[in-house]
C-alpha cells in the first residue's frame, strides 16, 4: 500500500515536501527454501522528484512499534539506474532488496520517503495527476530459483493546479504586455520561479531565482502553475504603460472537492482557472515640472498682475467720479 500522509492529502504546491509510505507484508519462507528473494521498489512519474536521502526502512511486528532497519545489513538500496528484479527490468526510482534472514522476525515492512513536484513542464497540472506506484516482487516458489511473483499498488495521484491570466484592453480586448502582479494566500505574498518556457511555478523564498513579481509576457499572458487548493488574491502592482492600475485585488478560489484534479470553478478539466484582466487607459494630464509648465505659471502670474492693475485703476476712477 502506498499513501501520502495520514490525512490522505492529494493536492500540493510545487514548493511542498510530499511524504509517502509503502507498507507491505513479509512473505514466509521455510529454512529449507532455496529461494527467498524479496524486493520493494517504487516508480514516480516525471512530475515527481524523489529525495533519495529521505528513504527510511522499518520492520514492524504486530502490536509493536516499528524498528528502523540498517542499510547493507538488513537491506540493499539502489537508486541510481534502479530496475525491478523481474524479467522485464522495468526502470524504477529506487529498489530495495531485503536480506530475508535479517527481517523474517517482522510481519511488515514500512518504507517512508519524500518527494516534491517539479518546477517545470514535467509536472502535470490538474486531472491526470502526477502518479506514484509501488511494487513488491518476491519468490513465488521457494524451491525454484528465479520464480518471481509481483504485486503492485494502485496509482497514487498528486494533484496541483494553475491560474492563466490574459491581460487585455478593456475597450478593444486586445492583449497588453508589461503588467506586473503579486499573488498572496492567507495574507502572505507567495514566491515563484520562472521556468524556461515562461511559466511561473510556486517556490520557496530560498529557491534560486525566487521572486514575488510576476510579469505578463509580450502576448498578454501570465501563466502560474504549481498551486495548492486555497483562496488566493491576485494584485496588480504595475499596469501596462498608459493604463490605470487596478485598485482592487481579485479573489481566485482553487477548490477540488471531488479529489480528482478538476477544479470546481474551472472551465476545463485540467485544473486551471482562466481569467481575463482588463485595464482602462489613463486620462492624460500635462507633464508637470517641465519648461512648458513653468511658462504657463509665469503667464498666469502676469495676467493676474495685469488684472489687479486694471481693477485698481477702475476702482480709483469710480471713486473720483463720485467725489
Low-pLDDT parts are 284-298
Q: State the major sheet.
A: 6 strands, antiparallel
Q: What would CATH call the class of the largest domain?
A: Mainly Beta
Share of β-strand residues: 35-45%
Number of strands: 21
Structural class: mainly beta
Rounded radius of gyration (Å): 34 Å
Q: Give the second-level CATH assignment, the architecture of the largest domain.
A: Sandwich
The total of helices stands at: 2
What would the principal axes of the Cα set say about the shape? elongated
Q: Order of helices and strands, N to C?
A: EEEEEEEHEEEEEEEEEEEEEEH
Query: What fold name stands as the CATH topology of the largest domain?
Result: Immunoglobulin-like
- Share of helical residues: 10-25%
Overall mean pLDDT score?
Answer: 87
Number of domains: 2
Amino-to-carboxy terminus distance: 114 Å
What does it look like?
With 323 residues, the protein is mainly beta. The chain folds into two domains: 2-158, Sandwich (Immunoglobulin-like); 161-279, Sandwich (Immunoglobulin-like), CATH 2.60.40.10. The chain has helices at residues 100-103, 291-321; strands spanning 2-3, 18-25, 38-44, 48-60, 67-68, 75-78, 94-98, 108-117, 130-139, 148-152, 156-158, 161-169, 180-185, 188-189, 191-194, 200-203, 214-215, 221-227, 230-238, 250-254, 272-279. Strands 3, 6, 7, 9, 10 and 11 form a six-stranded antiparallel sheet that branches. Strands 1-2-8-4-5 form a five-stranded antiparallel sheet, with no helix packed on it. The protein has a five-stranded mixed sheet with strand order 15-16-18-12-21, with no helix packed on it. 30% of the residues are buried.
Amino acid at each position: 500500500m502506498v499513501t501520502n500522509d495520514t490525512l490522505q492529502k492529494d493536492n500540493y504546491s510545487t514548493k511542498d515536501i510530499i511524504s509517502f509510505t509503502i507498507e507491505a507484508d513479509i512473505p514466509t519462507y521455510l529454512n529449507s527454501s532455496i529461494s527467498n528473494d524479496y524486493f520493494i521498489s517504487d516508480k514516480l512519474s516525471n512530475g515527481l522528484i524523489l529525495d533519495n536521502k529521505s528513504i527510511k526502512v522499518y520492520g514492524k511486528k504486530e502490536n509493536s512499534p516499528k524498528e528502523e532497519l540498517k542499510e547493507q545489513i538488513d537491506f540493499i538500496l539502489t537508486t541510481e539506474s534502479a530496475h525491478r528484479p523481474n524479467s522485464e527490468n522495468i526502470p524504477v526510482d529506487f529498489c530495495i532488496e531485503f536480506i530475508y534472514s535479517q527481517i523474517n522476525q517482522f510481519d511488515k515492512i514500512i518504507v517512508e520517503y519524500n518527494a516534491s513536484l517539479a518546477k517545470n513542464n514535467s509536472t502535470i497540472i490538474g486531472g491526470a495527476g502526477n502518479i506514484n506506484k509501488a511494487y513488491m516482487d518476491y519468490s513465488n516458489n521457494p524451491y525454484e530459483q528465479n520464480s518471481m511473483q509481483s504485486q503492485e499498488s494502485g496509482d497514487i495521484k498528486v494533484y496541483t493546479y494553475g491560474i492563466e491570466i490574459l491581460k487585455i484592453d478593456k475597450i478593444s480586448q486586445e492583449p497588453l504586455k508589461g503588467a506586473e502582479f503579486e499573488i498572496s494566500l492567507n495574507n502572505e505574498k507567495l514566491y515563484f520561479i520562472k521556468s524556461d518556457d515562461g511559466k511561473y511555478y510556486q517556490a520557496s523564498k530560498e529557491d534560486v531565482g525566487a521572486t514575488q513579481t510576476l510579469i505578463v509576457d509580450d502576448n498578454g499572458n501570465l501563466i502560474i502553475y504549481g498551486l495548492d487548493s486555497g483562496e488566493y488574491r491576485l494584485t496588480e502592482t504595475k499596469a501596462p504603460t498608459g493604463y490605470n492600475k487596478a485598485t482592487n485585488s481579485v479573489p481566485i478560489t482553487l477548490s477540488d472537492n471531488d479529489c480528482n484534479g478538476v477544479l470546481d470553478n474551472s472551465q476545463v478539466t485540467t485544473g486551471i482557472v482562466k481569467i481575463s484582466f482588463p485595464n482602462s487607459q489613463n486620462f492624460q494630464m500635462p507633464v508637470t515640472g517641465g519648461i512648458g509648465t513653468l511658462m504657463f505659471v509665469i503667464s498666469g502670474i502676469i495676467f493676474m498682475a495685469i488684472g489687479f492693475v486694471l481693477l485698481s485703476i477702475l476702482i480709483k476712477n469710480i471713486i473720483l467720479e463720485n467725489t
